[in-house]
Amino acid sequence: MIEFDRVTKRYADGSPAVADVSFTVPSHKTVVLVGSSGSGKTTLLRMVNRMVDPTSGRVLIDDVDVTTMDPVRLRRSIGYVLQSGGLLPHRTVVENIAIVPRLNGATRPDARERALTMLDTVGLDRDLASRFPAQLSGGQQQRVGVARALASDPNILLMDEPFGAVDPIVRRSLQHELRELQRTLGKTILFVTHDIDEALALADEIIIVAAHGVIAQRGTPTEILTRPANAFVAEFVGVDRPERRLRLADAAGVEVVTDASGRPIGTLER
Amino acid sequence: MKWLNQNVGSLLELTVAHLALAVPAILLSLVIAVPIGWTAQRLRWARDPALALVGVLYAIPSLPLFVLVPVVLGIGIRSSANAIIVLTVYATAIMVRSAADAFSSVPLEARMSATAIGYSTWHRFWSVDLPLAIPVMLAGLRVVVVSTVSLVTVGSVIGIPSLGTLFTDGFQRGIVAEVAAGLIVTVLIALVLDGMCILAGRALTPWARAAEAR
């Protein structure tokens, strides 16, 4: 469990990046922080592994204040996926994945074996092992990033807009795969995105962040969609957008779901 | 050709002397410039003053420096140490800027990601910052190699033996072949060392070509 307890972070000039934020990420759940850029969501994420330390307030992992932990060791115990994978360009795929097990003290052959197993886990061909990141597609780089984050089997996974740099079709399949992985792995995931659809697709719980990390609403995807707390959330979620306002139509005996403008989306199963 | 046939021995001797001055200076400048460049990149406020300072060093005329260094340090004016120190000053002046640029060229994302997955600062320097700085660093090193090999010859004016001795001697005695030999071998040394830099760079940065090939 990750707990944010009245956390504030001020920049050097005194202006707040996040102000008095409290929430928890329950164990084995996926919590998605969603907000526009500059809302402080990435700052919040980075407080978990001490890339950023709060000016006041506490961040606790299983009731232990992270500021009492050694930052380097803390980071090695937490999986972290960055935008476009955050791979080291001068290391091959297998070396990139093996880094964290190596940092945690695994022998070279063990770390390598572990890395190859992780390639299988994220659905990549072992033939890619000796390539450099620049020789991979964006989607493949993302998968390697996820493999690296999972390589030491951490309890916690931090994901900072991990699928932001790939095209929408690849993004959707990566989201699907992450959901499948999470079903078997049950990690505690804190995920940051500006894409509300991504939040709806992945989250057990969504936290909508307005400016300065102020929480506009938190709830399950269904709650957010059906009962937006205020105009800001309604606007952010786009409850009035045609693709959110679905209708039923009859097409020669088949029930078709359409959006508000009548474009077909799918068929209804009862 | 007649001069060459009679002087192969001394030509070889002076070539070795030339290298014995140039190579230590080049390597020393690298060892000095890398930590300064890395610090300049980490401490933004230190960058501009540090670069300004080394820029001033480069503006000092070389001949006075060859005379001044022995006086300040109390070493022989014709000693190898004097030549190596002076050459190192100029090489470092160029190399610090290259090193600072090289560390700035390391993608922020790679540095962030290395920190995020648990590299300590020291470990990150050796495993991430330094290897990724090599391409830009190498471009600077090549300039240093060529300029240092050329600058060594100035020392011959005050009597430090190198291929430059062939210029001074040949000029005084009016032997064109001797001056030409000194010039050609100096340029050859510069080209060979430059080529070695290129080869070393290729061997050290296989990922850079992988990225280009794509």
Q: What's the Cα radius of gyration of chain B? A: 20 Å
CATH C-level label of the largest domain in chain A: Alpha Beta
Helix and strand sequence of chain B: HHHHHHHHH
Task: Please state the overall shape of chain A, judged from the principal axes of the Cα atoms.
Answer: globular
The CATH topology of chain B is MetI-like fold
The number of helical runs of chain B is: 9
Q: Strand order within the widest sheet of chain A?
A: 6-7-8-3-9-10
Structural category of chain A is alpha/beta
Just give the CATH class of chain B: Mainly Alpha
Tell me which oligomeric state these chains represent.
heterodimer
Q: Please, what is the average pLDDT of chain B?
A: 92
Task: From the 3D structure, determine the CATH topology of the largest domain in chain A.
Answer: Rossmann fold
Give start-end ranges of low-pLDDT stretches of chain A. none
In one word, what is the shape of chain B?
Answer: globular
- What's the CATH architecture of the largest domain in chain A? 3-Layer(aba) Sandwich
Number of strands of chain B: 0
Which protein chains are joined by the largest interface, and how many residues does each one contribute?
A-B, 26 and 22 residues
What's the N-to-C terminus distance of chain B?
51 Å
Largest sheet of chain A: 6 strands, mixed
Membrane topology (chain B): Multi-pass membrane protein
GO cellular component, one term (chain B): plasma membrane
Protein name (chain B): ABC transporter permease subunit
Keywords (chain B): Membrane, Transmembrane, Transmembrane helix, Transport
